[in-house]
């Protein structure tokens, strides 16, 4: 159990040399969807330049329309993992939509000689896909980044995490990524980062915030700072342990979530913004 039923022992883990707990802080930045080798390499090089060893990269994409780009899937894994290793990336957060994808990731890692690690991401659309939750929970190699269901109560999402933990894998990060409301919103979803301390108190899991998906665009406040920066800072000041954020070298060419992708020129500013926010925590 992860703490929902009274077991409040701190939970954290070290994976591929990176410690993740309620006391650590990391930025997982990268592409929403892996498109070209050139773009992936630009991201890894930019991360290496600012000293970041953790990335996000989507190979399998849960799209609203079946006619939209579904991700390159296993085809991109061999070169993606090898390239990540070349740039010193220790963990890639990567969404899986089916237990089959875990096998594909394992095979690609094995064949490449484990140049990097993968944290298996459960997307908000699969937040109550119990068979998938049990599948990621019953393997003990990879940690899990669980994203809160955008239409679920917090209680329901915490119970979904119990499905993972009950299968034996307690290396879980709980990610807040905004929720849908009936109230209308200038953003894509309502930011729920006020729940960072709530989840930390109730579960002792490390908590992640994703500012990209609830905001949904590069819109900026009159101060010139993007809303994505502002809300990410709110999450970090509230004690978030991971920020998961989408970048693209050329957002207009992105095959998924281009409008919310931040450019690589912004990366050092984003990192500095987060550093200051973490200090303020
Ligand atoms: C993603 O991280 O690319 C993603 C699809 O996120 P979510 O499941 O939160 O919508
Ligand atoms: Mn995305």
UniProtKB/TrEMBL annotation:
Q: Which GO terms describe its molecular function?
A: transferase activity
Name of the protein this chain belongs to: 3-deoxy-7-phosphoheptulonate synthase
Keyword check for Transmembrane helix: no
Which N-terminal stretch is annotated as signal sequence?
A: none
Sorted keywords for this record are: Transferase
Q: Where is the DAHP synthetase I/KDSA domain?
A: 17-274
Keyword Acetylation attributed? no
To which species is this protein native? Thermosulfuriphilus ammonigenes
The organism sits in which domain of life? Bacteria
């Amino acid at each position: 159990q992860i703490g929902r039923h009274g077991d409040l022992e701190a939970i954290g883990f070290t994976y591929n040399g990176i410690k993740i707990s309620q006391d650590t802080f990391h930025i997982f930045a990268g592409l929403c969807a892996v498109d070209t080798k050139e773009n992936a390499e630009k991201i890894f090089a930019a991360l290496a330049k600012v000293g970041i060893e953790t990335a996000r990269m989507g190979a399998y994409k849960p799209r609203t329309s079946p006619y939209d780009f579904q991700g390159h899937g296993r085809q991109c894994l061999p070169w993606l993992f090898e390239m990540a290793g070349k740039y010193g990336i220790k963990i890639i957060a990567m969404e899986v939509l089916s237990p089959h994808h875990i096998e594909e990731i394992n095979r690609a890692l094995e064949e490449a000689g484990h140049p990097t690690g993968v944290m298996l991401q459960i997307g908000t659309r699969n937040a109550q896909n119990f068979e998938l939750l049990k599948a990621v929970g019953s393997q003990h190699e990879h940690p899990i980044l669980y994203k809160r269901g955008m239409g679920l109560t917090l209680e329901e999402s915490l119970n979904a995490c119990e499905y993972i933990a009950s299968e034996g894998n307690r290396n879980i990060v709980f990610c807040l990524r905004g929720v849908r409301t009936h109230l209308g919103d200038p953003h894509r979803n309502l930011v729920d980062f006020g729940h960072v301390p709530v989840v930390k108190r109730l579960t002792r899991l490390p908590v992640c915030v994703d500012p990209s998906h609830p905001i949904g665009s590069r819109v900026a406040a009159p101060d010139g700072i993007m809303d994505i920066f502002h809300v990410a800072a709110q999450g970090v000041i509230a004690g978030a342990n991971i920020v998961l954020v989408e970048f693209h070298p050329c957002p207009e060419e992105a095959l998924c979530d281009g409008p919310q992708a931040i450019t690589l020129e912004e990366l050092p500013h984003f990192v500095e913004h987060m550093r200051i926010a973490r200090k303020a925590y």
